[in-house]
Each structure stands twice: as C-alpha cells, then as structure tokens.
C-alpha cells in the first residue's frame, strides 16, 4: 500500500515496515498494552493487504512495478530461511542467557520485562526480540519460529542493497547477490541464534544506502530513516555508534545537497530540520523512553549497575593491572588487523575492488567516481573508529578477566565489517552499473561487477558449512538435559518453584551453560548446577543444594562425584537419570516410560 500511495522504492519497504513494527510494539510495551498493539498491527496490516490486492487486480501494472530485484530477493530470501530453519533449535549460549530467553518471556507475559520476570540483563534493549515476539504471537512459540522471525528481519535489512538494481541490467543485479552472500558469512553461525551484533551492521548499512538513494529528497529520506535509526538504539546500546556513523554520512550528504542545490536559507533550513528531527531527535527519544522504562520497571537506576555502564567512575578509575594496560593496545591492533581472519581479508579485498574500479573508470571514462571514492574512505575511517572504541571498551568497561582474552571481539568486529564491507560493495557494483552503456561495453561492466563481488566472497568460502549446518559442541548437554526435564514433568508434579539439582560431571566449569539453559527451559532460577566436585568447597555446596532440592537430575557422573554424593544418598547414584530427594537425602530413582 505504501508503494501504491507514495511510490517508495520496493527494496526499502520491508526494513521500514519491520523497524516500524518494532517501534510501535515498543510504545505498546511501555504503555502496557503489548499484546493489544500486536493484534491491532496485524489487523491493520491485513486490511491494508486486502485493499492492496484489490488495487492490483484493478491495475496489474502496479504489481509489475512492485516486483523489483529487491522485492524478489526479499521473497526468495524469506522462503529460503523458512525452509532452512524450520526444524532448528537454540544451541548458542547467549540464546539461553538473554536473547532467546527474552523472546520467550515476552511471549509468556505479553509485557516488557520488569522485576517480576527472570531477565537478568535488564538494560539490554528489546528491539529485535519484539519483532520475534510479534511473529510468534500469531504462530505460537517455538525456537525455530523465533529464528525464522529474526532471519526474515535480516532479509529485510539486506534488501535495500538492491536499491540501485533494475531488470534492465540483469547481470549487474545478479552481481548484487554477492553482497548478502558475503555479509551473511561474516558471522556465519549467527543465523542459528538471536544475537544482534550482525543485525546492527545490516541495518546501519541499509540506512546509509537508503540515505544516498534519497539524497535529493530529504523529506522522504527522513521519514524512511526514522524507524531504521530508532530501531538501532532499541536493538543494542552499541547501535548508538552506528547511529552516529549514519548521521555523519547524512551530514556529508546534506553539505553536498546544499552546495549543489541550495536556493536560499528557507530551503536549507527545512532540509536541516527534517534531517535533524527525524534521524537524530526521534532515535534519542526512543533511547530516553527505554532508560526511563528501566528506572520505573526496576525501581532503580539500573544502568549504572550494568556491566558496560559508562559512568564517571568507570572513566576515571581504570581497574586494570599495569601489565594488562600495556598489552591491550597491541592486542586490539593485532586482532583488528589480523590478516589470517576472513573478516579482515574481506575488508582488504573490498578495498582492492573499490580501488581498481576507481582507477579503471578514471582511465577509461575520464572521470573520477567520487561517490565510490568517498564511500571507501568513509568505510575504512569508520572501521578504525569502531576498533578504537572497542579498545576503550576493553580498557574502561570490561572486567579484566574477560578483557585479557578480548572476549567477544570477533562478534563485535563482525558488526563493523558487515557495515563497511557492505557499503563498499554496493557502491563498487553501482559504479559499474553506471558505466554500462556509456564508454564501456555492457558485457565488460557486467563482468567487472560480478568479479568484484566474487573477489570479496572468496575469503568466506570456508564459512559456508557453518552457515548451513548448526554445530556447537558446548551445547552437547542440551538434548540430555531437556529430555530429562520433559520426563520429570511427565512423571512428577513439579512446578516452577520446585528446586532441582543437576549433575553434569565435566571436571571443569561449563561457564554457566546448563544454569542458563535450565533458567530458559523452566523460566525460573530454581535450578542448581554442578559440573565438578574436586574440593571441599565443591562438596559443601553440593550438599547444601541437595538439601534445598526436591529432585536430582544426573546427565554425566564419575566416581569422584559419586563419593561426594555418598553422604546424602540412600541409593547408588551411578548412572544418568532422575532421582527423588526427600529432606536432603536422595531416596529413590524415578522410572520413566523409556526406562
């Protein structure tokens, strides 16, 4: 309907609608009418769809115009992910610690998290989770459907990369397919999780491309970018960095516009108002709303207690050892410029493709492709700025025990690599599109566009298997733990308040995987997890937890763990299974249907 009424480019519509949905749902959540908002959105969308079908039947040319390369990519990409992810489950640790947990919490409570919920990362914005919530509200909750919802959101964010494509140049349009292929492989396994770091890069790059496409129509640009940029700050706090990058890009476009087309102070003033009001003011308003919501929902200024809070104390008191401080900068520089990494290789090859295009076009066409030149320079400058900000984060905000091995660096880096590589590839291929039919032969420019996409794709070929097949060795206990929990629920009248002790004797810590898994499975914190019993302190804690529990779940056990259990057991606990606990003593096994 938006296409029919306003002739918005079809390639940008999915992302505008999806990010707009996130904003409307967020406002509904703040007003405590989240479920009602979802149903009103769905009903309104259904009416708009029916009306548009009527219009298309009356004038089929409208439908033909809508079927741009971007729209076809979006439809095909969505169908692809539905088929690919339809039977997948969560395996990644962070799905259970927050990103999957919050979707399940939203679905069960139909409200934003507060003190009554089990969410522990209380300051993490709920943006992408709200979109997944919207989908599962109508399909029913399942892990595969949550993954599909996020994948469709990602597909919508990749669709604007086709803004400059047309069916008149089909080979060039096909070359653009390399862009989503490359970007999806930057963090290949993330498609099987609800992690949002890659999503930030997709949306920010899409916003930059949309801004350039509408560089001479500031009103339309402002309206379209408003939901994208507002969603960035509601998806993750680091989205503010990409908001700043996009705003800097828009300032450059505004200077260009005023220099080239400015006709007086009145028009200039209107352009500035639209750019500032829609793309800066409104995102900051949504960020303020989220901050205020946290304060009211948790009755505290929770932000200052969060892990990565930027406060006067964190900026003035570096709680790190001198040795760590001296080694941190070389560590970050080496990681950011690690040429053995596909991410860095892809960036370098994108630079090479852009540079070769600039040189060839200058030599053959006799003109400088300034848009590509400025884009390549901007992309690399933004990459350096982002890596610098990561250095400051490790120095000031992250605990030393995690910062000393650059915890999460690849994940954080993937955001800016997606952003920088994506915009460089778009403008490289666009430059070749512009040359088609001018001073070059069409087949030469088409071949060059394809080769540019293929060149950047090469470093990521090793990631293809990880993209199509979910593998996570750390998640091996999930199947056994979930199966035993299902058996226990079938055999015993347990509730969310029933306390369980789980033993998975690894001989070392599992970094909280099972603890987060059981919080997610049970939506309660009433589970104690033990992965080793090698010290007196371990044994004492195990005894204490068994005294508090009603049931014992054993996934894996060794003779050392059996010795720790002897003092609290009337039966021999020597194999995986379920056991009853009465008054702090393991009294009997629980027989299940499958034995």
UniProtKB/TrEMBL annotation:
Keywords of this entry: Membrane, Transmembrane, Transmembrane helix
Transmembrane regions listed in the UniProt entry: 12-31, 37-57, 64-85, 131-164, 171-188, 194-213, 241-259, 271-290, 343-361, 373-396, 416-433, 440-460
Domain of life: Bacteria
Coiled-coil region(s): none
Protein name: Glycosyltransferase RgtA/B/C/D-like domain-containing protein
Phylogenetic classification of the source organism: Bacteria, Bacillati, Bacillota, Bacilli, Bacillales
